[in-house]
Amino acid sequence: MGTVILGTGSCLPEKRLSNHDLEKLVETSDEWILSRTGISTRRISGKGEEAFQLGTTAARKAMAMANVSVDEIDLIIVATMSSHMTMPSCACFIQKELGADNAFAYDVNAACSGFLFALDSGDKFLRVEQNKKILVIGTETLSSRTDWKDRNTCILFGDGAGAVVLEYKEEERGVVASNLFSDGTLWNLLYMHAASSSNPELEQPDNPGVHILMEGREVFKYAVKAMEAAINDLLIRENIEMDSIDLMIPHQANIRILKKLVSRLGINQEKVFINVQKYGNTSAASIPIALDEANREGRLKRGDLLLVCSFGGGFTWGASLLRW
Ligand code: ACO
Q1: Residues with Cβ within 6 A of ligand 1?
Q2: Overall number of domains in the chain
Q3: Tens digits of residue pLDDT in 4-15
Q4: pTM, full prediction
């Protein structure tokens, strides 16, 4: 018995921004970006492609695959940190767009780990309310939070959305277990201010604007160590050997983080799904986009053991195991 993914969907903006395009914005080169990050191009939102709109399209595709109608959805959980409004939540906008009148909806902000945290919340909800159906969506338009003059960060991120439909089934498959962590003491290695306060008592004179700021090298070191520990810990706890994993879908941050992680884990590289070259780091959307691509490419067979892991601002990180 377990929380099963009935369907997956994703949505990417039309516009592509290549490394050569970035050469015109900041002092960088295709060669530098490719060798340091593995990213060639990324998608950038335009009109009609806000986070809730990308998320809505991804959700419709996931529901179509799951053969689930919108009236059957009881809960919508959205992982994002780049909605066009702080309130109402992105989830409420998606609920409105879908016409999901029977669903309640809320957002989760765990930065790049958002989808994993939202999936865990959905899983826990369904273990209690077993006859419900849930949409879990990761959607981001980080292009709206990027300082396009900062070459340290603007080369990394991209926009997109992915979604899954969850249901609890009396079958020997679904979410096996999760291992999630946060460490707020390290907030200042990767962060983004909210809009400045209009309360004069709470002025933030050092607020540089709503942009992502990052100590790249530190993030790199923590990301590899933290994901490795979370995964090894989870496998030991569940008494599962690394060789039993059929497919690993890591958060697509950058190729060097992934290569280092893969070599430290000792997992066969061919079992690791990578699409960071096409989309860059889409934060909370990266895992559900990759999951949907892997699913539609036929990389996932019934009974396969899937490992997902992520790391992001907060810091937040973790790993989950799913029996497909
Ligand atoms: N183009 C050309 N040169 C650049 C660029 C650029 N875009 N950015 C930095 N440089 C220069 C620097 O100025 C520096 O020059 P200097 O030696 O003359 O001072 C040199 O390149 C090396 O800079 P570093 O920052 O040390 O480069 P590094 O090899 O660490 O690569 C990077 C930077 C790619 C950001 C790396 O640290 C990294 O991948 N960190 C992880 C960050 C990440 O993935 N964050 C996403 C959010 S968290 C997550 O999703 C896991």
Answers
A1: 28, 32, 36-37, 112, 151-152, 155-156, 190, 214, 216-217, 219-220, 223, 251, 253-254, 256-257, 281, 311-312
A2: 2
A3: 999 999 999 999
A4: 0.96
